[in-house]
From TrEMBL:
One Gene Ontology term of the molecular function aspect: heme A synthase activity
Annotated heme binding sites: 213, 275
Keywords: Cell membrane, Disulfide bond, Heme biosynthesis, Iron, Membrane, Metal-binding, Oxidoreductase, Transmembrane, Transmembrane helix
InterPro entries: COX15/CtaA_fam, COX15/CtaA_HemeA_synthase, HemeA_Synthase_type1
Cell membrane as UniProt keyword: yes
Hydrolase is among the record's keywords: no
Cofactor(s) for this UniProt protein: heme b
Gene encoding the protein: ctaA
Catalytic activity: Fe(II)-heme o + 2 A + H2O = Fe(II)-heme a + 2 AH2
Pathway: Porphyrin-containing compound metabolism; heme A biosynthesis; heme A from heme O: step 1/1
Organism in which the protein naturally occurs: Parageobacillus caldoxylosilyticus NBRC 107762
Name recorded for this polypeptide: Heme A synthase
Amino acid sequence: MQRSLKWFASATTLAMLFVLIGGALVTKTGSGMGCGRSWPLCHGQFIPSQITPELVIELSHRLVSGLAGIMVLVLSVWTWRAIGHIRETKFLAIVSFVFLVLQGLIGAAAVVWGQSDFVLALHFGISLISFAAVFLLTLLIFEIDKKFDAESLVLDRKMKFHIYGVITYSYIVVYTGALVRHMQASLACPSWPICAKARIMPVQLHEWVQMGHRLAAALIIVWISVATIQAVKYYKQQRVVYWGWIISLILVLLQMITGALIVLTQLNLYIALAHAFFISCLFGVLSYLMMLALRSNHHQQQVKETNEPTKSVPSILLK
């Protein structure tokens, strides 16, 4: 049973990644209206009479999202029954399914009634929360084997600040990136890292949106770098935190590189999809670090209430 659950959870996580990448593909190719103002059917038909590339992309995304929704529902019920005794399980099970349904409703509303770019930009972020919840459920399942040291972590205040702050700020970065896509502002600034060779500052709305996203992305790179340095210096013995930040730094650098290449290659589709893939993976890793930080808080509170001695930690972590 446990092995089957692991396989299914891994498959569901992969399916959610396809949902995220598929949504980015729909936006990048302008296929959002590939099925017209009809949902869930295409042009009001079960089998569309006129097949276009945009229709295929949009319909495929709907089918993948529908299949992922069924898988997430099954995973939520399965994990609730199998590992419901683990503190985070029930909350993540609810969040994973509710947010997936919510993103589907926003997508449907956009097709039927239309939405502003600022509202549509929320679509990717909501899907990202559902993906992160599924990803965390999968990690909880694999933690049953006790191959991680996630149960006995002790984090200092500075590290907790980095974890909570970076994941919150990363969501802002995700939103600005989605806004760039939906406003079709990806090439508003044809140079990189400055807006244009002749001038540094943007002068119109699309340029401000593009440069705002670049600035937000630059700040998160700096922040993750600082947190990674702290993890490397003080958390070598706590592998999950140590490697979590190193992987986060690698992913955010890959995100920066693909973001620059999107501009330099004039919107190469594969690079754009890789850009969405890296931010999805980064948010998943940061979500796991946040769960560990919350778990550490709970563990320390239990120790305080029972007057048990805390785990020996380096003195630098207690400052």
